[in-house]
Amino acid sequence: MRGPTERPRRATEADDGDDGDNGDDEDLVSRGHFESVAERDALRGDGGLRSDAPAGPGRGGSRTGRALPVAVPAAIALALGLWGIGRHDSMWRDESVTYQVAHRSLGDIWGLLHHIDAVHGLYYLLMHTVFGVWDGGLTALRLPSVAATVLAAAAVGAIGARLAGPRTGTLAGLVFALLPITQMYAQEGRSYALVTAGVTWATYFFVRATDTPRPRWWTAYALTLGLACWLHEFAALALVAHGVTLWWSKAPRPVWRSWGIAAACVTAGVAPLAVVSAGQAQAQLGWLGRPSLGMWLQFLAVAVVGALLCRLLVRAGSAEAGAGALTRLALPLLVAPTGLLMLVSLVKPWYVDRYVLYTMAGLALPAGAALSRLITSRRLWAGLSIAAAVAVLVPWSLLVRSPESRKDDVVAIAHAVQRTAHPGDGVLFMPSRRREWLLSYPRVYDRLDDLALAESPTASRTLQGTELPTAGIRRHILAADRVIALMDPQGQPLDPFPQEEVKRQLLKRHFEECDRVQERGAQIVVYAKPGAC
């Protein structure tokens, strides 16, 4: 194994595709990648991203050794993703948006994106294709997220192996796959797992590009991160993390120049989406508030854990263990995107933790390295730690596969309405955005008379349709004999809009409550004219 100041050996064809050491230092300088050998050496050893770790993917070693850090986390992520993928036949309202939008025509989806949800446009088109090939219900809804989580776990393993050896890579990938938040969004019919896969593989290409300054790695980096940004534009915050990594690593000017070009391409590529999304921000994110104290404490707790793990690795590790290189990559990825988004959200409330789900790779990498070191030095403690982790993770793993892990359950709500409502009953959604609870179940929704609806979601090119003015709502409610009201649970804040106020007032003054059914995240209340219950 080389020391941190020794020159790399010259690659041979027997390296099986290793680009990390192709050619000697003078040859790379002559090709214009670096202005001097010293600049190339700046990213070698513990002073930069390049680590003289044991053989990992693309770094020599046996085929099995190269495959394990990618294959083992991917296999575990696949098994966890398929385990209980139906979530006891439940679906929450955000997934319902995906389901009902993906089942619209391409023209209707395109019309919707001009009004709202442009940030999810590419994902909706992907899901439209998935359902066009196989309309497999909840399984088809979630399989793309499972596949993306498999790819993300493999990428974390590949990064860890590249920086700190195959065992660290394998364990880091496993930690990532086992994190409860990873398991949760692996079975979520939304784009966040796909964004995470894009960012983690872009980060792997970033490591390769700084290690082996060749255009193809920077091209792969820009294309992959650009794709992730089109799945959700907040993936662009990974650029900030990568920039901090280069600064911390004292990267030479040619690397900065190459990264700057790639970052500019990503930024320019996502700019049209960002412009359109900015115009939709109020309608899209108007429900968000500024980060609460609890959110800040949660962020600080995760950041402190990551920082402590990195600190322990650097103090106990060596250049050969890749602790410094791994720390300089992982800690900015863990902290920078979330921290920056939360700071922005003090002015423009845009923060939700799932928007930066990919930062969990920055926690998994030092955790995997710490486990690797613990296994090497203290097997008993390692065994106890693994047993404790299993004891904690099993209940969480069961929870995220239950309906109780989400805010509501659209399936249960639709079934409750089907049992409760009579054909032709009036229905009110309070607030109007709760129309989403029935839109994925047209056989239930179409039996009812939507008393407040002005235009359907498809006709209005919106997610949940548009509602009548207060006078129209009043007229329709007073003409109804029986009304099914779908409401938020008791104790939730009431929308102050005039249409919502008139619904509440008329039901209270002119109807009596006949029945109330509580479901996860909702209540279905049956109203009738006095004496007609």
Write the layout of secondary structure elements.
Layout: H1 25-30, H2 37-41, H3 63-82, H4 93-102, H5 106-113, H6 121-133, H7 137-164, H8 166-178, H9 180-186, H10 192-211, H11 215-231, H12 237-248, H13 253-285, H14 293-316, H15 323-344, H16 360-377, H17 379-399, H18 410-420, E1 426-430, H19 436-439, H20 442-445, E2 449-450, E3 453-455, H21 457-460, E4 466-467, H22 470-479, E5 482-487, H23 498-510, E6 512-519, E7 522-528
Parallel strand pairs: 1-2, 1-5
Antiparallel strand pairs: 3-4, 5-7, 6-7
Helix pairs in contact: 3-7, 3-8, 4-6, 5-6, 7-8, 7-9, 7-10, 7-16, 8-16, 10-11, 11-13, 12-15, 14-15, 14-16, 15-16, 16-17, 22-23
Task: Describe this structure as you would to a colleague.
- The chain is an alpha/beta fold and 533 residues long.
- The chain has two domains: 63-405, no CATH class; 410-528, no CATH class.
- It is 61% helix and 6% strand.
- The protein contains 23 helices and seven strands.
- The chain has helices spanning 25-30, 37-41, 63-82, 93-102, 106-113, 121-133, 137-164, 166-178, 180-186, 192-211, 215-231, 237-248, 253-285, 293-316, 323-344, 360-377, 379-399, 410-420, 436-439, 442-445, 457-460, 470-479, 498-510; strands spanning 426-430, 449-450, 453-455, 466-467, 482-487, 512-519, 522-528.
- The strands form two sheets. Strands 2-1-5-7-6 form a five-stranded mixed sheet, sandwiched between helices.
- A hairpin with a 2-residue loop joins strand 6 and strand 7 (522-528).
- Helix 14 (293-316) packs antiparallel against helix 15 (323-344) and helix 16 (360-377) packs antiparallel against helix 17 (379-399).
- Residues 1-48 and 54-58 have low confidence and may be disordered.
